[in-house]
Design brief:
The protein is mainly alpha-helical. The chain has one domain (2-87). The protein has 5 helices and 2 strands. The chain starts with a helix and ends with a strand.
């Protein structure tokens, strides 16, 4: 896990427990993703952006994988109001 490796290296001598740091880092990622939104089609095309899909509130890793597989099957997802598929929290 990338976040785990980063925390081990960068904050090795921190006084804050490792699990507490992970919880708050994950909470920050969920809040940022929900605030900014995600364009699903670009997340499917780019593995770097795809890493943010599990941080959509209520989605999680398994549903994010299922969403990517469904989009790959159907080519793209279209929002009812526009051509972009922006999911905002």
């Amino acid at each position: 896990m990338f976040i785990d490796d980063w925390l081990n290296g960068f904050l090795a001598d921190s006084q804050i427990p490792h699990e507490k740091l992970l919880v708050h880092l994950e909470r920050g990622l969920v809040n940022a993703v929900c605030f900014m939104g995600i364009e699903v089609n670009s997340c499917v095309a780019d593995p770097y952006q795809r890493a943010m899909l599990p941080f959509i509130a209520g989605l999680g890793p398994r549903k994010a994988d299922a969403l990517v597989n469904a989009v790959n099957k159907n080519v793209s997802i279209h929002n009812a109001t526009s051509d972009s598929a922006l999911i905002a929290g």
